[in-house]
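[[Local backbone shapes]]
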Amino acid sequence: MSTAILTGPPVPGSPLEGDLRSLGFDVRSAADADETVKLLDATPAGERVALVDPRFVGHVHSLRLALTDPRFPAAAAPGALTAQPEARAALADAVRSAPAGPDAVAEALDAAGTAVQRPELGSLVAAVPTDDAGREQARAAVAAVDEEAVRLRTAVKSRDGFFTTFCISPYSRYIARWCARRGFTPNQVTTASLITALIAAGCAATGTRGGYIAAGALLLFSFVLDCTDGQLARYSLQYSTMGAWLDATFDRAKEYAYYAGLALGAARGGDDVWALALGAMVLQTGRHVVDFSFNEANHDAESNTSPTAALSDKLDSVGWTVWVRRMIVLPIGERWAMVAVLTAVTTPRIVFYALLVGCALAALYTTAGRVLRSLTRKARRTDRAAQALADLADSGPLAQAVAARGPRITGAWTAPVMAAIGAAALVSAALTQPFGSLQVVVAAVFYAVLSGIAVARPLKGALDWLVPPVFRAAEYGTILILAARSEVNGALQAAFGLVAAVAYHHYDTVYRIRGGTGAPPQWLVRTIGGHEGRTLVVVVLAAVLSPQNTHLTLALTVLAVAVALVVLVESIRFWVSSGAPAVHDEGEPA
């Protein structure tokens, strides 16, 4: 239970107390600032507290937005202010310094350094009229706006893909409302989406036409539920730390499990497409790393201007170009729709060919545009951005040792060039040298050294955001190439599991940074070796086990299980802890 304190005499006939109770508040009244402070002190320290002006007139959803969102320590709307436990001490000080009411207290909190979130109310009403005429006018404004229509409209993300916007959201928002009215939580809907996708993967694994048709239909239904969970969270403001973790990771689990199901189904029909499945996972993960790195490098950059960005904004002002540009990047809605339809009517091989071609073209389009923006914009990267890129780089003990003791080469493009040279040398050796040869091991050591040189200086250059994607391409690509060239039964499947476990670690890093809590602890990165350490281990395993290469599958499987266990245990510990950020993932950019 939370506590709401009415900071003044009640207004006869006002529904305010009932509205606050409907939002889960225990309502109390305080005649003046001294009594308000006493009530604050008497409220348990672990509870949320709200201060509300008794004269408040507005929609219940205005109060819900201002007073119940768990993501912010303090939030306010006209006539209403809330503080979570971490802001309670600052609230008490502000009440003593600004006894004029919630609005004055909110200003005092801001002035004292406690940021107060003020949600966008749009057409919703939140007012504090001072006379009868103003009260009647405010009530008329409340009656003129359909609050439920506003809730349904704002439950849908303002920026989404074409397929999601026009083929899913028009009805999924009503499913979200249905779930809210029956007490379902976003986490339950997210879990239902995962279970549905796993059943879809199982249907695809049967390798029959009926199984493929059922898999495509279930995959689409899983995506409907995937949209519904976020809309339910926005509709009812049910954000949670667990929800952030589930929503951030289950999309990848669903997609990659479905790839595995398709590969198993193809194998039942005599077609081995595991290399294509692993290639699709590598490419899709690589695209996301490009998105994440670019956004982290630039979202708080100073003087962040670019003619290319200006042209993009101009294109976005023309309606049809917005949707074309959103579809080109093959976002999750379009991607899953394509996969579902092709699964039902074609073969897994064709599904993966379409995925690889579509994702490759999308990656070229987005990466080229971001490179142009980076080269033409005048921006100064912040220390926070440089640290985020260093965390995304996932450098292990070898690269860190080189960075600390090795040469520090100056130059605007040193970091991406060093990373690219090392990655190219490694991937080329894995492709061209005999499987298990010493040359590939030497190339892996060379890659580790250049990786350390690349991150030896703060990543503040115009193109330094390319460093993490290059590292991901080198690590994932090398694992894929060696597993495919080994021609060992089960090696590709084991490599698929290893890349999935490592990719989970990288997504976990991204969402921790997004939540403002920083990257995973250094002990975790050291334990699983960093990108260069894991790559070197795989290369050495391939070299050592090449004479009796039947053991390579077992070695990769053991490595995959070890990485997955360490990463998952630490990830679960963090996301269920009190320090995890209460955010809801707003969806992937691609």
